Every structure is written in C-alpha cells, then in structure tokens.
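Q: Could you predict the 3D structure of SIMPL domain-containing protein?
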Amino acid sequence: MPDQVTLTINTAFTKPRMVDAVRETQNTVDSVIAILGKYGNKKEDIKTSSVSANKDYQYIGNTTKFVGYQAQQTIDFVLHDLSKFTELTGKLLETKISGIGSISFAHSKADSILREADLIAYDDALKSAQKLASRADVKIGKLLFLSNDGSPSNESTGNRTGMALETFSKAYGGEGFKIAPEVLEFKRTIYTEFEIK
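A: Sure. Here are the predicted structure tokens for SIMPL domain-containing protein:
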C-alpha cells in the first residue's frame, strides 16, 4: 500500500495589469505554502515546479481577444501522512487556488522494493533456465549476460488518480475530498543468458 501522496497545486490569476496578476498569484502561493508547511518539511516536501507570466487570450465568438495578463505558479507537495489527506485538501480549498492538477500515490521505499523485485525476477529467470535446460537434457553453465530493462516507466510506481479539481480561482470552504489509494505494483523484467554445457 502507498504511504505518501504527491499533490500538484495550481494557482493562476488574470488581471488587466501584470503586476496585479503577479501579486494576487504570489499572495495565494504564500498562503498555500504556509498551510503546506504545517503538513511537511518546507525544504524537502514543497517544490515550485513552474512559474509563468503571459498575456491571456480567450476565444470569444469568432475572434481571439486579449483579456489581460496571467500569472501562474504550480507547487508540488509530498504528504507523508495519508491520514491527513482529507484535512489538508480541506484547508487548500479554503484558499484561492485554481485547482489540484494531479494526485499521485507512491511508496517512500520504492527504490529498495524495486531492488528486491530485481532479485525475485533473477531467481525466476534462473529457475526457468534450469527447467528449460533439464527438458533439453543439458546443463546450464556460467552466467554470460544479465540486465534489467531499466526503463523509467518501471521505476515510476506512483498511482496517479487522473483526477483534476478546478476551483476557478475562487475560494470556497467545505471538507476536503477522500480518495482510496490502490495497491501499488512494482515490476521488473530481467534478461539473462547462460552458457550451455
């Protein structure tokens, strides 16, 4: 089962003046960071993943119209106590965030679990090689080649909900939402070559 969750929190405002959009966005981000600081380590668990400021256009009727200047910031936060998830999201929904872009469950010991999966996969490969050799009435010799697939996708074991919550830059109260995390799957593929005696 996962023991941590990563939230991607979006904040964006469009104003007639760029300075006002930046100020409003920064004020909201500051309030979000103050909340997150109570649920995790500010240096390790809170990261600003993107900051942008651009002209904002909307398609109205048959034309694209300039509607103002937009400032946007995205924060990634890792919550290590899943029992606080509903409480945290409730606090975030009281701010003027634009939305929670993604929710990804993971395990803090994913690296060691993957290393264990490597060992189990190798044991399975060795047993398979021995059975095949026995059926062919030969014996396997020394190991000639060994590799795991090492693909980034196999190391990304988080369970992303695919859920996005949009608040349209309006603060509203209420309780946070609840999500039941699913069991995480850790997979490794091992490639082996053995000498045949």
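Q: Anything worth pointing out?
A: The chain is about 30% helix and 35% strand.
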